[in-house]
Amino acid sequence: MSKTIVIGSRGSDLALWQANHVKAKLEAIGLQSEIKIIKTQGDNFFNLSFSKLEGKGFFTKELEDELLQGHIDLAVHSHKDLPTESPEGLTIAAVSEREDPTELLIILKDCVDLSLQFSVRYNGIVGTSSNRRKAQFRSLRPDIEFEELRGNVPTRIQKLRDGNYHAIILAKAGVQRLQIDLSEFHVEEIDPVEMVPAPAQGVLALQTRSNNFELIEALQTIHNKEVAETISVERKVLNMFDGGCHMPLGVYCKKEDGQFEVWTSKATDDEDFPERLFLRSKTSEGLAEQIVDHYTKEKNTVKSLFISRELSEESFFRRSLEKFNLDIEDRSLIRTFPIINTFDSFILKQVDWIFFNSKNGVENFFRLEPVIPKRVKIGVMGRGSENELRHFNRMADFVGESGDIRDVAESLLPLVQNQTVLFPQAKDSLRTIQVQLADKINSIDLPVYETVKEKEINQSSADILVFTSPSNVEAYLSNDNVIFANQKVVAIGKSTGNKLEEFGYTNYVIPYSPDEIGLSEAVYGLL
Fold it and tell me: Coiled coil where (predicted)?
């Protein structure tokens, strides 16, 4: 193309970063461009909640009008701000790579309580205008209050600095793009598997006129086809629910080992407990329809559920099932007992890492009141163990989020290779992760508790059986109990699944993550 391409952009720092990012991409393929700043309705209404603005074109309409009138050639949008259908005469010609869709929780340092999930003080005030974020955050921290938060990224951070909130939630991508220094705050990352992002979060959309064939063809050089395929699932779910970003809907799709993995979180409003679903498929075709069908179908065939763990009234898992009126039978089939009262603290001077594969390991290790050197890092298996660690005012340096110990070991290995790792664990532990990391680390096993089977373990007739450890499977099935053909089974991780297979049961579901969120997603998928 010989002419200079005119790029339309909003005037915020982040929007201009995005426009300049695209400008640099165009220059790399030999296309000259310039940026024209255009003000949108969303830039004018600073006092309205995003629930009244997002997803309705408030941040995009003026850019699209300029395109249609021929005043600009290309509009750069945050893809999540776009309505699901382009106006007649316009098309999304290309999408960018996807920035990290993680959310950042930015907390004033004097409002931090490490013992609580997300580390915000009890009854804290969190700034966000996203109903999606409110619903998901509230489901994990029901004590939190929310206040509306508007303005560009630096303005929002300044409002936190001024003390208007105890914490705020921002997209990590925006903070990274602007290279903002957050060292004065306590910052925690919320993984997209834990807080499901908005459809197409972290992706730029390059929009032009449908008849600008020369530019459309040129843009294919910088078009990311894989991102386009995954966010098409997310955007189609949004479109089929007929909602904009005001809907408390999160959809996140990624491609892993040739399969599409999709997390969905949907609520009716910001105070409704979100229904969470995880699906895996070899193809993206029909995946959005499958998700929406599951949310809209009648769920009256499952009446009861058994879980091999006592649940508190505040349990995320229990609360996630309340709206379905299930009869929940929660009872552990094992009891745990500490087996040591002290250990040689010199061990801790020799180790680089401590790794816990269960909440029981965390509890029984810290009961010993260990003095851990500051240089020693801590890893845990699952967010349940991570939250147990918080009770001792400790933060995990590594959280294994997969239900497959092989995936966890693969993620952990680069951090611990050729180092010494202490494993506080159960007596007669399966040592699954040590086996996976054999010859790559120096491991020290420290049995701190043992499990004992309950004397009486009755057969459960529940429609769904949820087993939370290999020990619970062993206790249930070695006691002359059986799993009936009509019972659906969830095993919290691969080790638990392997134990089921030892007893001849191969038809079970493993949640993506070995925690109550993962269990909720797995059970919801069976309703």
Answer: none
Helices in 162-315 by DSSP H: which ranges? Answer: 172-178, 213-219, 225-240, 287-296
Question: Does any domain span residue 489?
Answer: yes
Confidence of residue 42 (pLDDT cuts 50, 70, 90): low
Answer whether residue 33 is part of any domain: yes
Residue 236, pLDDT > 90, answer yes
Identify whether 179 is part of a domain: yes
pLDDT band of 168, cuts 50, 70, 90: very high
Tell me: do 305 and 284 sit in the same domain: no
Q: Is the pLDDT of residue 403 over 60?
A: yes
Number of structural domains, the chain?
Answer: 4
Mind giving me the DSSP string for 479-494?
A: TT----TT-EEEESSH
CA angle 421, 422, 426 (to 5 degrees): 135
Rounded CA separation 331/328 (Å): 10
Q: Which domain holds residue 399?
A: 336-453
Residue 195 falls inside a structural domain:
no
The angle, 0 to 180 degrees and rounded to 10, between the axes of the packed helices 225-240 and 287-296 is: 30
Catalytic residue among 73, 81, 270, 515: 81
Mark whether 81 is an active-site residue.
yes
